[in-house]
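Before the break, one more example. Copy the sequence into your notebook; we will annotate it together after we see the structure.
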Amino acid sequence: MVPARIFDQITEKCTEGLALALACDDDGATMDFRWCNKAFTSITGYAYDDILGQRGSILVGPSLEQGNHLIIIEKLFNWERFSFKVLNNRKNGEQFWQKMSWIPLSDAETGNRWWLYSLVELEERPREPAKRTPFPAATSDQARFADYDSRIERLEKENSRLHELSKIVATEMHEDPLTRLSNRRHFEIELKSWIAKLRQGGPDFAVFYVDLDRFKSVNDTLGQDAGDRLLISVAETLRRLTNQSDFVARLGGDEFIVLRPLGDSALQLSGLADAIVQELQTPFAFEGKTVYCSTCVGVAIADTGMDVPEQVVADADSALGRAKSQGRGRWSFFTADMQAEATATRQLVSDLLVACENGEFVPYLQPVIDAGTGKFAAAEVLVRWLHPAQGLLPPSAFLDTAASAGLLKRIDEITFAMLPDILTSFDGTGVGLPRISVNISAGRLVDPAFIHDIKSSGIDPERLTVEILESVYLEQIGDAVQWTVDELRELGVTIALDDFGTGHASVQGLLQIRPDLLKVDRKFIQPIVEDETARALAASIIGIGKSLGISIVAEGVETETHAQLASDMGCDYLQGFHFGKPMGSEDLRKRLDETQGIFWHR
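Here is what the structure looks like once it is written out:
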């Protein structure tokens, strides 16, 4: 793989074939290709994978004259910069005339030596040099000098062109093409250099992690051109606010980073963080329209006392997360408390990875009751983690971390795989489990394999309810989500919209997804006993669902009065601690035996 110091980006629109080969230190003729552009593959007929890792000899066809081949090897061996026009062959054997140019490059940091290979296909065979005709001595010398001048002029032009090309490559490998700031790869190189100096007794330094608020809304509202212009404006602001000794880069998207040597006063750091936040709160105007797009900043310091100074970027990111959690347009320092929290989070992620491998998750079931008959109607599966050291952990102890670590989809898969066995274990009892419901994360909802997993699991779709969080639905609705919903409905799976009322769902949104069940969040149900206003609000939400022909589930039913009121307001099903907390399968079976499936008498 070509390192960032050699190459970052060369556009595919380049019609000149270009390739980079890593050469042996002692022998410039010994090399292997690490990259080529699209034009190179088009001219030679070799695919990118054909070229990658191969010696330069792969491009030597049978039509290349042996004499020319030996001259090329000699020049490569001696690290000469040269150009050649030769007859060669494509991969399929087709002959073509080409002009090849070889430029030696070097990496000062690693010491590696490279070749930049330029290839241009010639439309016709180069003209043979004219045969010399005897001239008088004076005329012959004059012609010879003219020929030399012409050759020197051509070589100078070629050298200038190749020099400019090498400068473009060197610039593009370090520069973000939109903002003209340093790019992520250049930042990674620079960070290593700063850390190396720190370890050698150099100055401490600070990392400022900058992230825009509501940047997506700018793209959605004003278009991508406006988003690009905003990023350019942010880059200009950061250039203006920073010193010559600072390093500024765009990491990608709407993320920027600043490295600043630590001075004598902490005010130099807080002052910069304050300035960035204040300046970027200014309304952004584009083509007569105005949007507000503030920013948050996380600041961390790398000092000689750190065991792992490379952690400073992650520390700044943690501080950024703290700033965002406190609201928009803020900045935060990385503190000892954050350090402890970050350490605990890393350990938790590590433990979660082990838990996924060892199957440490267990299903707990909470009963759902028919409000009209009081009978057991269904059970919601709520995953618990049987931690080997900490015991049984509720979802609140690990699901947010699992989501941020990208493990939620895996936990969903593990939970879903348990469902057929859960249903089977109840089928042989006196009171069976009519229906089972499970919450689905956003990642699982847009996973094309989700529908296939349901079909191949052996579970009866008519006994399955998929619960979609209202917040997930609102954030992710699109063709992929709609396709999944349509497929679930076609299979016969019941669709529930969970925690309704906690987000910003509209009647139009309900019409689009058309859930079979609407679960009213516990925060609307719990206060209805004492608060008439809360009772009226809950009744309104229930009325919306009923008017659309949707069955209603009341969550958070904790007392007999809760159950009676929710039932009187039109709820079809009831769920809450009054009927049972989440419990293991064996405990639920015992409860069903004791009650014969009757949990409530109106």
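The first strand starts at residue 17 and ends at 23. The CA atoms of residues 73 and 193 lie 37 Å apart. Try to locate both features in your own notes.
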